[in-house]
Predict the structure of ATP synthase subunit a.
Amino acid sequence: MRTTILITSDEFKAPGTELFDFDPIVPGGPEWLTKPVLLALLSSTLIIALCWAAFAKPKLVPRGWQNAGEYAYMFVREQVAKPNLGKDADKWMGLLLTVFLTVLVWNLMGVIPFIQFPVAAHIAFPFVLAVSVYVLKVYLGVKHHGVRGYLKGVVYLDGLPGWAYGIYAPLILAETFINSLFTHFIRLFANMFAGHLLLAFFSSVGFWFLFERLTVLGVGIGVLGVVMTILMTAFEMFIMFLQAFLFALLASMFIASGLKGSH
């Protein structure tokens, strides 16, 4: 976290949205090549390497990376894929495991020393991932049921009088084709954005009152900042895992809705 740039005066200044502004890594180079982009590329490389180490030469009795890889695979299969996709779960495990691991590694980048920036706190990355799932959902729905059949399945309102369709159908269509997309990536982005700010704030408090402006009265505040940084880091790691799980779970639900042609 770039907290040191915030301590430039005689008064404590809480970190703000400037934590999410990044200059190009190479001065004068491509503007898009920033720290979040580099971390996203690093995350992909790391995931590929871990999966290769776990599954390239599987053994009957798993050990080491294979053991960790199979644990992750079984977790996603049993807790994410099967509850929504049933017998089709195994067909989609490659995608769902990739989504889960990608979001998890993105998030964990926020607690790795000297890196300390969760990729998903940059809205473009969860947005692109959510749009990919959204496009797949619509594609599967149209492919398996046709445009008319898919829309009919989405707005299926059995038992309601005809006049009610004019009220509920637009709401259901908006939820299926608009709200679902935004809630998919906004939830992940907002949690990582807020968590990064909180960690930056408490670590800045500890640094300021214990190192920059050490006073008798400020020691207690500085120690509190350090303690809160440790506690919030542990809590944030739980949130990072939870958000990866929820993102993959929603992805499996959206894929299932496309296959079944229903809301």
The CA atoms of residues 173 and 257 lie 13 Å apart. Residues 1-8 have pLDDT under 50 and may be disordered. Residues 3-260 form one domain.
